[in-house]
């Protein structure tokens, strides 16, 4: 503010301020929301012969739009051309989006039409943004009307425009509108491409329209639009999410037979579903074949398998994978360790769980409260109260606050060790410190 006031003084004394300094001051004022002051400094700069850059103008237009001052933003747009700085797609897109946010649909369409008539380049990106916004807020039919209307102004859609519209309608689950857009696309002599079909398939899979999925695949085959790796991954993901595992495996076989090589995303999708179904033997067989076919497992692959094995209590195989991932340079994360800790506690291997917890600490991994809690509960359950207190000390020193469940487990552990008097004292002390509630039940 002091800098902008100094610029005001300079202008009154007919002194020309440094233009780079003006730009920095304008941007600073915009960032702190002093838009009127920023516009005054901008005016001084322009009147002194300076030409602000497009970034500064777009920041100002964005700031005004954010505050709902759309008319002022449009005035800045008009001034840009006079100052020698041409507006770009970001300028137009910002104003159009804000108009739609304020339900000014017709005004937005009129605004873009006026800009075209004033000589604005028919930016395809801005045109696509406008049509997509019309489609989202007013429906596909209105979008097609605007699209036709804009053709008269020199704005012509391409396959990207139509794909954007199909994507917008599909995200909202409006499959019928997406079909209507495809009909329009075909009527203009254009051909859908793989992006068009993949977008449609993603929508259909998400909503479980499997008959329509088969229909789209059939059309793809007839029009020489072969299913790509992306297509198969979309299909497998949709089928797996809906529990249609047999059909997903059929598609995988079809994929291989058509010489479309699956990638790690394909396998991760399938492995995740197999693990959920408890089919760990099948999972391990597929996993072992990955490196043979030149597909290296990644962190999520290992985490999926380790978690599945840990939940089944097969800690020997889970640890073998843990060792393997380290050997192959895949760094375990918090999820890996949490799965192993929980798995060890599940089969009462609490000493191993404690060692894994210490390994996390050595590697500076973030340990969740729930992870500490599982170990403390497991140790107390197995009568290892001293070890549980050691974990509590670790927890506190790492600035992780124990919760009521952990303290209750400790009290119960002390009592189970035959020290009922000590357990009562500990309970009372925790209640006194308002860590436990008086009505908290302990054994």
UniProtKB/TrEMBL annotation:
Keywords: Repeat. InterPro entries: PPR_rpt (IPR002885), TPR-like_helical_dom_sf (IPR011990). PPR repeats lie at residues 18-52, 53-87, 88-122, 123-157, 158-192, 193-227, 228-262, 263-297, 298-332, 333-367, 368-402. Coiled coil: none annotated. Pfam families: PPR, PPR_2. Belongs to the PPR family. P subfamily. This is Pentacotripeptide-repeat region of PRORP domain-containing protein. It comes from Papaver somniferum.
